[in-house]
Each structure stands twice: as structure tokens, then as C-alpha cells.
Amino acid sequence: MWPVGESDRALLILDMTADNVSGPSAVPGAAAIVRFVQGELRYFRERGRPVVFAATAPDLADPPAILTELTPRSDERVLFKAAPSAFFDTDLGEVLKAQRVRRLTLVGLETHTSVLLSAADAVARGLQVVVPEPCVCARNADDHRFALRQIRDVWPLWPNSPLAGAVGDPDETGRLRRHDGPNGSG
Fold first, then answer.
1. Structure letter (DSSP) for residue 156
2. Single pTM value for the model
3. pLDDT at 60
4. Number of structural domains found in the chain
5. Is 59 part of a structural domain of the chain?
6. Is-contact 118 106, C-beta < 8 A?
7. How confident is the model at residue 38, as a pLDDT?
8. Are 45 and 88 in contact (CB under 8 A)?
9. C-alpha distance from residue 6 to each of 2, 49, 101, 123, 127 (Å)
């Protein structure tokens, strides 16, 4: 557990494992987002904000390796999940609550599964969600765009959404410029 920090923000890095980024089962475009995920990681580390890595591990006897370029530090949490959402059947919600996290930035793979479902669970817990587009991708561009639309355009309209009426925060949105990312969006 981290000491309670001065910031109410945390970073959740999803499924950025060696197998997902390179090799025969790699997500197309995953290698292209690594540098952007590294940028987010550096940003949160420099400010002493909590960082959590979550990786899907159907077999805990042989958990996947986090990508070398993103190696977790000893004070950063690594959790293994059996379902797409990093909140399902883990203590992530309690850990973030104990840290007084109110805004969660999600990056990694894949936009329409782990990112979308973890973001939905975060919103359901009253957290504001930030998903920088250059830091996520999916195997299918249509699925990628659908997930980003849900997160950015649909959820803020929910009556009890923590995003309802929220104004963009330059600290969160100004550091990344949109680009023609791995899924051809931006």
C-alpha cells in the first residue's frame, strides 16, 4: 500500500505484457502505443502519484510478464485479473479508495475489453475516468472507436456520472496531442 499522497489521481496500466505487445498473439498497434504509455508512466512517477499494473492471468501459476519498457517499481502495485475489468474479483477498488483517488487514468490494451470494462467499473465507483487516446488500442478499429465513444460521449451524460458537467483539465488533456494512432483514429 502506498502512503496517502497529495494527489487524488492514479494511473492504471492494463495488459501491457510482453505477449500482448510482440509475438504471434500481439495486439496490432500495441507496439505503437508503448512510447505514449511510457510518457504517462513517467508523468505519474515524477509527481509521486500511484501507479497500478493489471494483467489478465488465466493461470496464476504462470502469470504474464509486464513489458520490460514499463517495468514496475517496488512501490507500484501489480495485480493479476481473471476477467477484463481490473476491479472484478480484486481489491483495486478498496486500494484506490484508501488512497483517496478520485480520478483514474487508464492506458493499455484493449480499448473495447479491459479498458472499457475497467473504466465502466471505475465510473460505477464514482471515479472520474481519463483515457488518453494515444495510449490505448484494440485489434479492431471499429471496436476501438466504439469504446472511446462510450467513455467520452455517452457516460458523461449519465445522471449520476462523476463526469456530468465536468470541464476538461488541461493538466490531464494538454500533455498529449491527438495523432493518427495505431487504430487510425485521432
1. G
2. 0.84
3. 74
4. 1
5. yes
6. yes
7. 97
8. no
9. 12, 8, 10, 22, 17
